[in-house]
Amino acid sequence: MSEVLVLVDHVDGEVKKVTHELLSAARRLGEPAAVVVGSPGTAGKVKESLARYGAAKVYAVESDDAVNHLVTPKVDALATIAGTASPAAVLVSATVEGQEVAGRLAARLGSGLIYDLVDVDGDGVGTQSVFGGAFVVKSKVTTGVPVITVRPGGVEAEEAPGDAVEQSVELPAADPAKVTRVTGREPIVGGDRPELTEASVVVSGGRGVGSAESFAVVEKLADSLGAAVGASRAAVDSGYYPHQFQVGQTGKTVSPQLYIALGISGAIQHRAGMQTSKTIIAVNKDAEAPIFEIADFGVVGDLFTVAPQLTGEVDKRKG
Amino acid sequence: MNIVVLVKQVPDTWSERKLTDADHTLDRESADAVLDEINERAVEEALLLQEAHGGEVTVVAMGPGRATDAIRKALSMGADKAVHVSDESLHGSDVLTTAKVLAKAIGTVEGFDLVIAGNEATDGRAGAIPAILAELLGLPQVTQVRKLSVEGGVIKAERETDEGLAFIEANLPAVVSVTEKINEPRYPSFKGIMAAKKKPVSTLTVADLGLDAGEVGLGAAWSQVLEAAPKPPRSAGQRVEDSGDGGSKIAEYLVGQKLI
Ligand SMILES: Cc1cc2nc3c(=O)[nH]c(=O)nc-3n(C[C@H](O)[C@H](O)[C@H](O)COP(=O)(O)OP(=O)(O)OC[C@H]3O[C@@H](n4cnc5c(N)ncnc54)[C@H](O)[C@@H]3O)c2cc1C
Ligand SMILES: Cc1cc2nc3c(=O)[nH]c(=O)nc-3n(C[C@H](O)[C@H](O)[C@H](O)COP(=O)(O)OP(=O)(O)OC[C@H]3O[C@@H](n4cnc5c(N)ncnc54)[C@H](O)[C@@H]3O)c2cc1C
């Protein structure tokens, strides 16, 4: 069976959930081979987690350059391994950086690219959800080793034991004129909340929340539900909440089991990022707000009384 | 400092966007077309750099005839001149072909120091063209940036992604992509709009760029859309007025749905 390369997303020696999802998708296409690009010692830390989700092989691409240069080490690593392993496909997460890695890799390999899939089958046919979920598209790569990016949360992660045989790979020397140097990093400190794109419940606040301080109302409800916090662009632009939590057309796309919108009008660009959520709840004091057109359950009222009451009810049930 | 800004005309996100039944490509006729908002920010950043360092700002766009409207808007903001790649054969190009054509078009602009693009187009949403251009042009990629500065042949920037912030730097020339946090774009002035009408726009075909019509477009794409279907829109569910028990009502609903 041909190998299917999976680029591993990891932070602080921990594998991200999306990598487990990609390994599960890779099993449909062939034999999953995880590619770990990081500082020396990284592969050892993540190997067990990769084995649990079916990685037959773990390519360890470790060096200081791997962390100090932007994007290109990942492309170099995948291109080098693809050159010797002749994989059936390469899978990368459809994150901001994943899209860049996959695009460059496809150009270098002379391969077709299909991106941001919410599903992929054993024949390499991918499903895309485009225009904020308004269209469903099926597509396939027709030339070269298919380079495929899969949206976090698209495919379910399923455990399956793999041997995770480690093989180290050296990065080719980098050309200083072509690299971008990383001189520092400030990773997101997510605290105890789940990541926005991975969460099964998201509670978002809009301009109606009114201030950065009042976002505590949104956070309290989120914490009682074990949810991630999101925000509309108007809330972000007004400085109520940081940009990385923006949901919508130009922010994150989320598709949780439950989405609760507080003080969000429901502009088309906001809906584009959340309307594929399973269940949508809206609280807005304007009965005409378009968010109600897509909400399964809506309350016309003041979020500052409705949300705390809901938080109390949830806490009560947790006992 | 000479700067190339990549601008794309896209269907307005405020209008209904569709794929055609015939070949599943973007239906560019049915929706209003606008200069993508992120590209206004790319133009703005180029103009700010020009104000600080001098040089010329050239707009490059690949798109059908009516993309001239988007180009004029960029020129009315203050860009100096434009290159418009327009050719029937480009219809249905995939992301790799688009990058290949843009790389050739950028190559017609003499002595550029920076290429500035948006981080992601609101229609295709690949978020990959700038990175692919860096690959094809053999330049560093300084992408997804919310802040940048140029000094002594080096560009320094703050990159924002899912992982957090990264402080990055590279030698010029380089390919940049900006996020929506980079700046607030200026409005074209009346004078700017009038001046834009006289600014030079060179319109190029695929052949002008030394490419063959068979190398681009739907037929040459390395991926293929097999089917595309609209999803039925969501319908409204229950809606209640809060009379002091709105929060409890939501809780009841969530219990009923087994969500709590
Ligand atoms: C190219 C482009 C891209 C965009 N991308 C995005 C994106 O990614 N994400 C995004 O969100 N937007 C995006 N937008 C912006 C979008 O058009 C809207 O402006 C934005 O979503 C509005 O945010 P909002 O609903 O919080 O604010 P508003 O539209 O101002 O709505 C606030 C709502 O709060 C309600 N309210 C006020 N006080 C209370 C209260 N006490 N209790 C209950 N309800 C209250 C009001 O009735 C109102 O409905 C984009 C726009 C463009 C043009
Ligand atoms: C719904 C949909 C799904 C698609 N899926 C795929 C797919 O899976 N695989 C595939 O290969 N193609 C796909 N395409 C085609 C692809 O989006 C187009 O080829 C597109 O021209 C390039 O991608 P983008 O606009 O998403 O670029 P992005 O990388 O998102 O654009 C970033 C920036 O690059 C610059 N730029 C991009 N295009 C142009 C242009 N024409 N002129 C000037 N500057 C430009 C702009 O500055 C822009 O802000 C899809 C298109 C659509 C509409």
Task: Write a brief caption for the model.
With 319 residues, chain A is of the alpha/beta class.
Structural account:
The complex is a heterodimer of chains A (319) and B (260). Chain A has helices at 17-29, 42-52, 65-68, 72-85, 96-109, 215-225, 233-237, 268-271, 303-318; strands at 3-7, 10-11, 14-15, 31-38, 57-62, 89-93, 113-120, 126-130, 135-141, 147-150, 165-168, 181-187, 201-205, 228-231, 258-262, 279-284, 297-300. By secondary structure, chain A is α/β, with parallel strands linked by helices. Chain A has 2 domains: 3-168, Rossmann fold (3-Layer(aba) Sandwich), CATH 3.40.50.620; 201-318, 3-Layer(aba) Sandwich (Rossmann fold), CATH 3.40.50.1220. A 9-stranded mixed sheet of chain A has the order 9-8-7-10-6-1-4-5-11, sandwiched between helices. In chain A, β7 and β8 (126-130) form a beta hairpin. In chain A, α4 packs across α5. The longest helix of chain A is centred in the C-terminal third of the chain and has 16 residues, at 303-318. Chain B is of the alpha/beta class and 260 residues long. Chain B has one domain: HUPs (Rossmann fold). Chain B is built from 6 helices and 13 strands. Chain B has helices at residues 37-53, 68-77, 95-107, 129-137, 190-196, 246-256, and strands at 3-6, 9-11, 33-35, 57-62, 81-85, 114-118, 141-151, 154-161, 164-171, 174-178, 201-204, 223-230, 238-241. In chain B, strands 9-8-7-10-6-1-4-5-11 form a 9-stranded mixed sheet, with helices on both faces. Chains A and B meet through α5, β7, β9, β12 and β16 of A and α3, α4, β7, β8 and β9 of B. β9 of chain A pairs antiparallel with β12 of chain B, so a sheet runs across the interface. One flavin-adenine dinucleotide (FAD) sits between chains B (6-8, 26, 36, 38-39, 42, 61-63, 93-96, 98, 102, 117-118, 120-121, 123-130, 223) and A (113-115, 130, 139).
